[in-house]
Amino acid sequence: MTIGQAHIRFESVTVGYGDRLVQRDLDFTIGRGDIFAIMGPSGCGKSTLMRSAIGLLRPFAGRILYGEDSFWGVDPERQKILMRAFGVMYQGGALWSSMSLAENIALPLKEFMGLQDEPAREIASLKLALVGLAGFEDYYPSEISGGMRKRAAIARAMALDPDTLFLDEPSAGLDPISSRLLDELVVRLRDSLGTTIVIVSHELYSILSICDNSVFLDTETSTMLATGNPRLLRDESDNRQVREFLTRGTP
After folding, report:
1. Domain segments of the chain as ranges
2. pTM of the model
3. Which helix (H) or strand (E) holds 206?
């Protein structure tokens, strides 16, 4: 694996729902091993774009390429193979409330790898330990804190050893300390496993602290205004909206 080589490319991508255009003419690249932020104000279409990237929403136009494969241009069997390399943490965590943490993580292992109960639980324990939740295998989502549920959701997203991890608003609703610990976990996962991590977020502290690269989506123009290292965009961008977003409107 070569860190930094092109991993995902968006070429003239336009997304929306029905007759409603959400974002248009998006062109940017996510490097292998990047922690990449899809950022912008609430309602700009960040999660919509992520849905297209993970195979849940066909774009109106353009191509999303994983390596040389155009995801929406290949046959359904090839799409399934590509999707097996994705791990997704949805905004609310989406853990099954009636299952323990170990059972939540074991589910995709049984479904997609055909593992039996014991080996699936062993892997689930390893994934929970990876996110700092060793010993919590038999706890239910309702029995742990919000920050722990987020970490458990990341552990489930990592169950099948994906090479690309998508995190939708991972810090939303967390207190500052829990948010910082989650940011540190994301960096450790990237550094230890080489995983490409795509974060949908409008949380400035997280974006500026851990992201190597980013794209800024604008609500008014329904397109991207900038792409690049968010700290450089904050300090050097010639676009007023980008600077105001990244400085909370302060000079």
Report:
1. 95-161
2. 0.90
3. helix 204-210
